[in-house]
């Protein structure tokens, strides 16, 4: 049994995140998509909402589970018996940032591997912050996020107005 942990903020989940989760499901026996609690960041969507949206969007993949995590990602990986942490790489900046994280994680627990998956070219410019910005200016996000996320954000706008 080989499991991996795919941690992130997923605020909100995008098609780029889903693509990585889907590809990981073909590479590992079990994939834990882990919404990491971040005390510092003021979230756009509550963490429970992000978990629910991801669960719904990934329900077609039986070996993918969505969990809420906190603390060190390497500790989450150990707790869930995952042999690797997976991260998506969009460009050289992601590579530099993620490589730094790998080195920092090694100070905590060097026994957990990290695997980098390249983003699909069409997702290279896609991030949760881009989605938040376009949504904030009432732009069309239908090509960037799964349908359930789009619906949730539309409802959020209705509540705000
Ligand atoms: P974090 O705050 O931990 O970076 P994110 O939700 O922004 O959390 O990203 C989670 C993971 O998904 C990261 O590994 C990130 O590089 C990857 N990711 C984000 N957007 C994309 C995308 N468009 N294509 C591929 N991977 C992505």
Describe the structure.
With 161 residues, the protein is α/β, with parallel strands linked by helices. The chain contains six helices and five strands; from the N terminus they run E-H-E-H-E-H-E-H-E-H-H. A five-stranded parallel beta sheet has the order 3-2-1-4-5, with helices on both faces. The longest helix has 17 residues, at 92-108. It is globular, with a radius of gyration of 15 Å. 32% of the residues are buried. The mean pLDDT is 96.
Please sum up the structure shown:
The protein is an alpha/beta fold and 161 residues long. The protein contains 6 helices and 5 strands; from the N terminus they run E-H-E-H-E-H-E-H-E-H-H. The chain has a 5-stranded parallel β-sheet, sandwiched between helices.
Which tags fit this structure?
161 residues; alpha/beta; Rossmann fold; five-stranded parallel beta sheet; 6 helices; 44% helix; globular; binds adenosine-5'-diphosphate
SSE diagram, text form:
Layout: E1 3-8, H1 15-27, E2 30-36, H2 47-57, E3 64-69, H3 73-79, E4 84-89, H4 92-108, E5 113-118, H5 128-136, H6 147-160
Parallel strand pairs: 1-2, 1-4, 2-3, 4-5
Bound molecules: adenosine-5'-diphosphate (ADP).
């Amino acid at each position: 049994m080989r499991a991996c942990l795919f941690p992130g903020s997923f605020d909100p989940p995008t098609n780029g995140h889903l693509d990585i989760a889907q590809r990981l499901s073909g590479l590992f026996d079990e994939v834990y998509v882990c919404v990491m609690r971040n005390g510092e960041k003021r979230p756009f969507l509550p963490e429970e909402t992000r978990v629910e949206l991801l669960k719904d969007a990934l329900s077609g993949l039986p070996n993918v589970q969505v969990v809420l995590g906190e603390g060190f990602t390497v500790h989450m990986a150990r707790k869930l018996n995952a042999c690797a942490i997976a991260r998506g790489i969009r460009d050289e900046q992601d590579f530099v940032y993620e490589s730094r994280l790998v080195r920092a994680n090694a100070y905590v627990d060097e026994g957990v591997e990290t695997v980098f998956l390249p983003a699909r070219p069409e997702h290279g410019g896609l991030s949760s912050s881009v989605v938040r910005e376009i949504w904030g200016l009432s732009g069309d996000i239908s090509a960037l996020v799964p349908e359930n996320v789009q619906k949730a954000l539309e409802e959020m706008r209705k509540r705000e107005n």
